[in-house]
Design a protein that fits this description.
This protein is an alpha/beta fold. The chain has 3 helices and 8 strands; from the N terminus they run βαβαβββαβββ. Strands 1-4-3-2 form a 4-stranded mixed sheet. The longest helix has 11 residues.
């Protein structure tokens, strides 16, 4: 037996473990500009954990929720973020092609260390960087028309 083809509708949420909740909330909220859920917008199943500072929730532009789980003892197996340490490779955010260069400038202005230089491929452009816990993030756009 398998799940019926087409019955999965969308990604419901993405959960990341973070070592420093303040730094991670600053990164996802202020640097990437995601809206943090507060008050009645917090999912009812997470209200207590949010109140205790163990979880923070952000809403992505497509409605997917990004959950940050506070794990103060979190340590990557290798301190070098270029050495992959999970089965997840990266989290990619899409942006309009005309806003891509502005996003790269904003990252540099916030002193976010960019992995190499932005890349251009037949599928579009991308820039890679790391969150405070060494998790790779990409901002990408389709090719300009």
């Amino acid at each position: 037996m398998k799940i019926a083809l087409g019955s999965l509708r969308r990604v419901h949420h993405i959960a990341l473990n973070v070592k420093d909740m303040t730094a991670s909330c600053n990164f996802y909220g202020h640097i990437l500009g995601l809206q943090q859920l507060t008050g009645d917008a917090v999912p009812s199943t997470l209200v207590e954990l949010v109140a205790l500072g163990k979880v923070a929730n952000f809403i992505l532009p497509d409605g997917t929720v990004l959950d940050l789980f506070y794990e103060p003892d979190l340590a990557a197996p290798n301190p070098d973020p270029q050495v992959q340490f999970t089965r997840v490779n990266h989290l990619a955010f899409d942006i309009a092609p005309e806003l891509f260069d502005q996003a790269v400038l904003a990252l540099r202005h916030q002193q976010v260390e960019i992995e190499g230089e932005p890349v251009t491929r037949p599928t579009g452009r991308g820039v890679y960087f790391y969150d405070p816990d060494g998790f790779m993030i990409e901002i990408r756009c389709d090719p300009a028309t």
